[in-house]
Write a structure and sequence with these properties.
Elements: E1 6-11, E2 18-19, E3 22-30, E4 35-42, E5 45-50, E6 55-60, E7 67-76, E8 81-83, E9 87-91
Parallel strand pairs: 2-9
Antiparallel strand pairs: 1-3, 3-6, 4-5, 4-7, 7-8, 7-9
């Protein structure tokens, strides 16, 4: 049985942080079948993708709404999906 990928944000602005410019989110993801991709979602849209381990997702906060609901999701090679909890960020 496969429960889907293990997923964690290792470094990123905290919940309710004020951000500006290019914001980077570092992610750790692993799975027995391998990770296909990791995506950063802001307000329901994919704003960044990474396909290689040592996942780094960066996006331009100035192109987002004043309030951002942000999540990271990972897909393993079997198609299972795992989401992180949602963080809310505010544009400066």
């Amino acid at each position: 049985m496969n429960a889907g990928p293990a997923l964690a944000i290792t470094k990123a602005p905290k919940n309710k942080a004020k951000i500006k410019g290019t914001t980077k989110v570092y992610v750790k993801a692993s799975d027995g079948s391998g990770i296909a991709r990791v995506e950063l979602i802001a307000n329901g849209k994919v704003v960044a993708r990474d396909y290689t381990a040592g996942y780094l997702l960066g996006f331009d906060a100035s192109k987002q709404k004043k309030t951002m609901k942000v999540q990271v999701r990972a897909y393993d090679k079997l198609g299972n999906v795992k989401y992180t909890s949602t963080r809310t960020w505010y544009r400066k």
